[in-house]
From TrEMBL:
It holds the Pfam family Acetyltransf_1. This is N-acetyltransferase. It comes from Spirilliplanes yamanashiensis. The lineage of its organism: Bacteria, Bacillati, Actinomycetota, Actinomycetes, Micromonosporales. Residues 5-166 form the N-acetyltransferase domain. InterPro entries: Acyl_CoA_acyltransferase, Bact_Acetyltransf, GNAT_dom. It comes from the Bacteria. GO terms for molecular function: acyltransferase activity, transferring groups other than amino-acyl groups.
Length: 174
């Protein structure tokens, strides 16, 4: 078995590779869920490059944690967490991005990326597409539980999952 990918903080020099990974992951994961016009938009990758440049350089995002997973010099996954946007949040962190290329699922990249952007005891929430059974199962294995909140963003139904110290303990005992 190969060792897990290396995970490290993202750098501005990673932006193009990060954008390419996100676009590829979206195409692998969301085909049939997100409109093809979005996934096949010729400007999709350029928009992701602009987003990641801002995420890594703009002072507004200084409290975010951004990490990449690499294997053999290739970026194979990306994660980002930051302060919650919900003013009434009971969690201290929100996981905004966690994507790993399908060819690297099961390599340890996902758990390593999660650990790189969220502290173990930190209360955290995320939104995940529904249906997306693989991602939801991954998050459940890492102590997240659906809290009943649902939203539709850009035509995609999402459920909120949260991990609190209490939820994490109960998910391990079950």
């Amino acid at each position: 078995m190969r060792p897990p990918p290396t995970v490290r903080p993202a750098r501005v020099g990673d932006v193009a590779r990060m954008a390419a990974v996100i676009v590829r992951c979206w195409r692998e994961t969301y085909r049939g869920v997100v409109p093809d016009a979005v996934l096949d938009d010729p400007g999709f990758e350029a928009a992701r490059r602009r987003f990641w440049t801002a995420a890594l350089t703009d002072e507004r995002y200084r409290a975010n944690r951004v990490a990449v997973a690499e294997r053999d010099g290739e970026v194979v996954g990306v994660a980002m967490s930051g302060p919650p946007l919900d003013a009434g949040a009971t969690w201290t962190r929100q996981l905004y991005v966690l994507y790993v290329l399908a060819a690297h699922h099961g390599t340890g990249a996902g758990p390593a990326l999660l650990a790189a952007v969220v502290e173990p005891g930190e209360p955290v929430a995320l939104w995940v597409a529904d249906p997306n059974p693989r991602a939801q199962a991954f998050y459940r294995r890492h102590g997240f539980v659906a809290d009943g909140a649902v939203q539709v963003e850009d035509g995609v139904r999402e459920i909120r999952m949260v991990r609190t110290p209490a939820a994490r303990a109960s998910s391990r005992s079950g």
